[in-house]
Design brief:
Elements (H helix, E strand, L loop, with lengths): L9 H12 L3 E5 L7 E4 H19 L5 E5 L6 H9 L4 E5 L5 H10 L4 E5 L3 H8 L3 E9 L4 E8 L5 H21 L9 E3 L3 E6 L9 E5 H14 L7 E3 L8 H10 L4 E4 L2 H4 L2 H11 L4 E4 L1 H5 L2 H9 L8 E4 L7 H7 L7 E8 L2 E9 L2 H5 L12 E2 L4 E5 L9 E8 L6 E2 L4 E3 L3 E11 L2 E7 L3 E4 L2 E4 H9 L4 E9 L3 E8 L10 E5 L2 E4 L2 H11 L10 E4 L13 H13 L10 H16 L20 H15 L6 H7 L2 H15 L27 H5 L16 E5 L3 E6 L14 E2 L52 E10 L9 E5 L2 E7 L4 E6 L5 E6 L9 E2 L5 E5 L4 E6 L5 E6 L9 E2 L6 E4 L4 E6 L4 E7 L10 E3 L4 E5 L4 E5 L6 E6 L9 E2 L3 E5 L4 E6 L4 E6 L9 E5 L22 E8 L3 E6 L5 E6 ...
Parallel strand pairs: 1-12, 3-4, 3-5, 11-12, 13-14, 14-15, 27-30
Antiparallel strand pairs: 1-2, 5-7, 6-7, 8-21, 9-10, 10-20, 15-16, 16-17, 18-19, 19-22, 22-23, 24-25, 26-27, 28-29, 31-32, 31-35, 32-33, 34-65, 35-36, 36-37, 37-38, 39-40, 40-41, 41-42, 43-44, 44-45, 45-46, 47-48, 48-49, 49-50, 51-52, 52-53, 53-54, 55-56, 56-57, 57-58, 59-60, 60-61, 61-62, 63-64, ...
Helix pairs in contact: 2-3, 7-8, 10-12, 18-19, 18-21, 19-20
Protein name: Carrier domain-containing protein
Keywords: Lipid metabolism
Organism: Electrophorus electricus (Electric eel)
């Protein structure tokens, strides 16, 4: 093999070729619909020399970089050679890229000069004139080229100036974080002439700037020229754009060999038929280097009959830039008798361009074996060192590890590096398995994911899908970090009938029946269940990035559109149709025979299903129904076939009102039946309604109380000198605001309750004392029996799954709660009268919160927005948009006033309602954030859980990750904190406690999934039945109160655990699943120590004694209950799925008689 001198350069190799092949065609430009144009080597080099001379006169010989802003054209290689000969490095700028991205490239490369294709000069000026001062230095009509000099300018005034400064400040902070300054070590490599400057894709942050010396790229050209046996007779296609470094290999592989470089307009590259005609009929292309995705654009028929036909002109097919297709796929592309040599290339932009090369032997391609699942990366190229290291940095000779690439000369400069250590090895982020001295590609580090505790290689899954006969091409990705989606292009041999798929949009269709089932069934024979995709989506073609790779971003947008389209509602129309549809799906997702009988009491999990299959069934049902449900997944996991059918038909009934995702504006008609208001509304409420976010200063000078689910009660107060419109004032908190308090009767004495009772709902229900007795009548054995009755109810128009929040002032108390009708209501606690009502952009499942200033109510919405509304009037103060539905309930940081909330886009956001800005956001590593964040005061920490199975501990002020706990199952439950631990439930049935530094303290197992969020409370220890005295942990009768955890489970039980060790104190069996969070409150008014209220999905509200779990009262409401109750004074407020919000009165028998008499009076 030839060696090379250090002084050799890209343009030097072209100069050598000109000497030998001056009269040969060097460049051909062919659009396919007109005669092609060409330049000989002599003409090409003459143009290059002329440009170099002109540049030297215009910019001098000391300019290091020059930009190139152009489309592909016949003069492009001459422009490149002219810049290199100056000598300077060229910086390709893509005309179709965003202005911000291009400006960043210019800034990072310190560009002063740019060569612009003359036809694009006006476009350049219109895009960049507000950011740059542009001087035209020279115009060369022969080369169709204009040279400009650029000066960065800052807008002088107005919002654009502020935005410019803000953008630059954010950019500097981000770059400083990603690329901190480093101390330069000794023994460095520097001073090499840079050939070109590119950028990485930027998938993990800001794109890196990569400066590539001639000494790094020339060895690639020389070695590949030898491997491909290049000759002057070859025609090499310039497949890659100038911004993608394989273009350098393509261009100089041809021009250093005396061969012909073939170029086409960018538009032709997107037209597979015309491109194949230009390449193989008009120009007889012999060397093609491309990404597998670009090659697939030709389609199976054209690949076999033209590109890789028996008589194809193509000598060399080099595939790189993506994982190489499996041998099975490669064989399917070739026609029998094809002689093309196929190579697998592997490399990374940070060590431009290729590092390894493997030629597939003919025997490999001719074999019918399916055992060879992947193609090796091959041997390292000239001057390149390739190592595999494990996570500890140790070399791997057998097994899995990450690829590192480098070499003495194969070194590029990243970002602001000007010097680099000799032999530097760059981490690639690519993982391989070393087997029998061969490296086999597994995937990017971020493409290795865990599902149910098992590792899944997404690229391996993609290869497995592509190996199926019914599949022509495939791309696999994770949506929201959890939903595994396979985008499938059906093979041309597969004739998909119109009955087998539903057209969703102009560019996508998805299988409802046979093809999806066929793909999943065949994959189940090849892969373990945890590797199977949740959704198979049929697409006509895989979209490309500018670099010819699969655009996963475009595919995910397509998937989101697919999910947003209402499906086949007719399949769920009536009970019989819904039953038949569900039976068919039940058998499909469980892999049962078509004639299998599905019994009414069949259980999905017990019939052989698992949680992944349940998620797939859930996904299909919600897509085809065009709606979702808070309880559907739980019913599938834990209920019978009859339960699932009942839930679906209930969804269908409630969903007929609203199936569109279009937002309802405030002034528009919502299509929802009008609200059933109370007939009498007091005048003082009407007078308080405002049209601005200003609030009265009078009432805010005193304290207020906020009451939320899970026993969260906070007291706040203000100083006395507040002025009107003081939303900017910060509250002062009572001691330990974020500690959970048990509401007491003393703190609520100012709330006078209306004792009017709705007709037909005035009966009381009593229960016997004693744990586990669920009867609703009998004689009490302690001070007095307790009863529940309905004080009032308010119709919201649709199901209420959200939990209420109460804002209590000395002179009034209000309830704020959202509904699936899109409505957020403010109700008077004493009467149930509607103070105000707002219709938001979509359904509201997020429980509202009150900001620490007491002036704003905050709620998330299915439309992806977080709404900040004035508590007095409902007027909009601010709306913040996330990337997906917001079902999480906000947490309020009492120290900073920040509102912290999760979104189904996988982020947690910290929002400043006063400044109306997002202070920080944190990506939770995959999986939607359904549960509510939890703040802990000391140490000051923030906890957030995801449906991807992660519990994350963050710094509340910055969103910085402290530690994370990873579960194998989704976490719907919200975390709860004590002084020593954080507790959370999971759908695997576990309630887990972790220390505040992330160590597991204990784990308690229930017999069903836990969707309920724990409630922590300090209560007196139990009474010794023999002595009658309370028994404390230290054996004495004097000790602080014990801390207990109360949490429900889908096993129809509520559990009381000791938070110190997770031991069971008591268990109470209910009549339904416990989805809600318990609420602990003071029982003193009824002669008891501490009580807890909870609800079950069968519609029952329960009140228990916390000490022993004895039932004190219960009441059945006419609808399912997913909402969590809140308690204030003697009232319990809860939302119901029969569309109503209920306020219940908890009282004793003596009070009941007294109240009844006073009512008669």
């Amino acid at each position: 093999m030839n060696t090379y001198e250090k002084t050799i350069s890209l343009h030097g190799m072209v100069r050598d070729a000109v000497v030998q092949h001056g009269g040969n065609r060097a460049v051909v430009f062919d659009s396919g619909d007109s005669p092609s144009t060409c330049l000989t080597y002599n003409e090409l080099f003459a143009f290059g020399n002329e440009l170099s001379r002109q540049l030297e006169m215009a910019v001098g010989k000391h300019e290091q970089t020059i930009g190139v802003f152009c489309h592909t054209n016949i003069f492009l290689p001459a422009w490149i050679i002219g810049i290199l000969q100056l000598p300077a490095a060229y910086v390709p700028l893509e005309p179709l890229s965003s202005s911000g991205f291009t400006l960043r490239m210019m800034d990072r490369c310190h560009l002063k000069y740019c060569l612009i294709q003359s036809s694009l000069l006006q476009h350049f000026q219109s895009v960049f004139s507000s950011f740059l001062s542009i001087d035209v230095c020279a115009e060369w009509s022969t080369l169709k080229l204009t040279l400009i000099k650029m000066y960065r300018k800052m807008p002088s005034q107005g919002s654009s100036a502020k935005q410019w400064r803000a953008n630059n400040q954010m950019l500097q902070v981000e770059e400083a974080r990603q690329h901190p300054k480093e101390v330069v070590p000794r023994n460095v490599h520097q001073g090499e002439q840079i050939a070109y400057v590119l950028h990485t894709s930027g998938t993990t942050g800001l794109p890196k700037i990569v400066k590539v010396p001639h000494t790094c790229i020339v060895p690639n050209i020389i070695h590949l020229r030898s491997l491909f046996q290049m000759s002057p007779d070859d025609v090499v296609f310039l497949a890659s754009p100038l911004t993608f470094d394989p273009s350098v290999v393509e261009m100089f592989l041809a021009l250093s060999s005396g061969a012909c470089l073939l170029m086409v307009p960018s538009a032709v590259k997107r037209m597979p038929g015309r491109l194949a005609h230009v390449l193989f009929r008009r120009n007889m292309t012999t060397v093609l280097q491309a990404t597998p995705t670009l090659l697939r654009q030709f389609g199976g028929c054209a690949l076999k009959e033209e590109v890789l036909s028996a008589g194809s002109s193509l000598r060399v097919l080099a595939l790189g830039g993506e994982a190489c297709p499996s041998p099975v796929v490669l064989r399917s592309w070739r026609q029998e008798g094809n002689k093309t040599h196929i190579y697998n290339l592997y490399g990374t932009t940070e060590v431009s361009c290729w590092a390894c090369c493997y030629e597939l032997p003919n025997s490999f391609l001719a074999s019918d074996s399916t055992e060879d699942a992947s193609v090796p990366l091959g041997k390292s190229l000239m001057g390149t060192v390739v190592e595999v290291r494990d996570e500890r940095g140790c070399l791997v000779t057998e097994g899995e590890g990450q690829v590192f690439i480098g070499g003495q000369e194969r070194v590029c400069l990243l970002d602001d590096e000007s010097i680099v250590v000799k032999g530097t090895m760059r981490a690639t982020g690519d993982w391989v398995v070393v087997r029998d001295s061969h490296l086999y590609y597994l995937g990017r580090k971020d493409r290795l994911v865990k599902r149910h505790g098992q590792r899944v290689h997404l690229d391996n899954l993609q290869q497995a899908v592509e190996s199926l006969p019914v599949v022509d091409a495939c791309a696999v990705g994770l949506h929201e970090g959890s939903r595994l989606v396979a985008f499938v292009v059906p093979s041309e041999s597969r004739n998909v009938s119109s009955t087998e798929h539903v057209q969703v949009s102009e560019d996508i269709s998805f299988s409802c029946t046979s093809l999806e089932r066929e793909v999943l069934q065949e994959l189940s024979q090849l892969l373990p269940n945890h590797s199977l995709p949740d959704t198979v989506l049929l697409v006509p073609a895989l979209p490309l990035t500018n670099h010819g790779k699969v655009s996963m971003e475009k595919l995910m947008r397509t998937y989101e559109r697919h999910r947003g389209v209402s499906g086949d509602h007719a399949a769920w129309g009536d009970m019989d149709t819904a039953r038949a549809t569900l039976q068919s799906l039940w058998k499909d997702y469980l892999g049962l025979a078509a004639d299998a009988v599905v019994m009414e009491d069949a259980h999905f999990i017990l019939s052989g299903g698992d949680s992944l299959q349940a998620l797939r069934l859930f996904d299909y049902i919600t897509v085809t129904m065009g709606m979702t449900s808070a309880g559907l997944l739980e019913v599938i996991l834990d209920g019978s076939f009859a339960d699932v059918l009942k839930h679906i038909t209930s969804m269908t009934h409630h969903g007929r009102i609203q199936t569109s995702n279009k937002r309802q504006h405030e002034g528009s008609t919502s299509g929802i039946p009008p609200k059933k208001y109370h007939t009498k509304v007091t005048s003082n409420i009407v007078s308080e309604r405002n049209t601005s976010p200003e609030v009265s200063s009078v009432r805010r000078t005193v304290g207020f109380v906020i009451v939320r689910r899970a026993g969260d009660v906070q007291e706040l107060y203000y100083s006395q000198n507040r002025e009107k419109n003081s939303l900017m004032d910060s509250p002062k908190a009572s001691e330990d605001l974020d500690r959970k308090r048990v509401p007491t009767s003393e703190s609520s004495g100012s709330v006078e309750l209306n004792r009017d009772i709705l007709a037909g709902e005035e009966q009381f229900h009593y229960v016997n004392q004693g744990s586990g007795d669920t009867s609703q009548s009998g004689t009490a054995t302690d001070n007095q029996a307790l009863g529940l009755r309905v004080l009032w109810r308010s119709d919201t128009g649709r199901c209420v799954d959200a939990s209420p929040v109460l804002l209590v002032h000395p002179d009034q108390a209000r309830v704020f709660i959202g509904s699936h009708s899109h409505r957020l209501q403010a109700l008077d606690l004493s009467s149930g009268e509607v103070v105000w009502e707002r219709v938001l952009g979509d359904r509201i499942e997020s429980s509202a919160a009150i900001t620490s200033c007491g002036n704003l109510v905050v709620a998330g919405c299915y439309d992806g927005q977080v709404y900040f509304l004035c508590v007095d009037s409902g007027d909009t103060w601010w709306v913040f948009e996330t990337g997906d539905a917001v079902k999480s309930s906000p947490a309020i940081d009492p120290h900073t006033g920040l509102v912290i909330i999760g979104s189904h886009d996988g982020h947690v956001y910290a929002l400043d309602p006063l400044a109306k800005c997002c202070v920080w956001k944190h990506h939770c590593g995959g999986g939607a954030v359904f549960s509510s964040p939890c703040l802990h005061s000391s140490p000051r920490l923030l906890y957030s859980a995801t449906l991807g199975g992660q519990l994350r501990c963050l710094r509340p002020d910055s969103g910085e990750l402290m530690w994370k706990y990873v579960s194998d199952v989704p976490l719907f439950s919200s975390p709860a904190c004590s002084e020593t631990c954080v507790c959370i439930g999971s759908v695997s049935g576990h309630i887990t406690a972790l220390s505040h530094d992330g160590h597991k303290l204990w784990d308690f197992h229930t017999d069903g999934p836990v969707f309920s969020s724990p409630c922590l409370a300090s209560v007196p220890p139990p009474v010794n039945k023999k002595t009658g005295s309370r028994v404390y942990d230290n054996g004495t009768s004097t000790s602080p109160a014990n801390e207990v955890l109360l949490c429900g489970s889908h096993d129809c039980s509520v559990y009381c655990l000791n938070t110190a060790d997770g031991s069971l104190l008591w268990q109470f069996q209910t009549t339904g699943k416990v989805y809600s969070s318990p609420f602990v409150f003071d029982g003193t008014p009824w002669g008891r120590s501490t009580l807890v209220a909870l609800t079950t999905t069968d519609g029952t509200v329960w009140v228990l004694d916390v000490e022993q779990g004895a039932l004190k009262a219960s009441l059945s409401l006419p609808g399912e209950l997913f909402s969590s109750p809140v308690v204030w004074g003697r009232t319990i407020v809860v939302g119901c799925r029969n569309d109503y919000v209920y306020c219940l009165d908890l009282t004793g028998s003596k009070e009941q008689k007294k109240t009844s008499l006073s009512t008669r009076d």
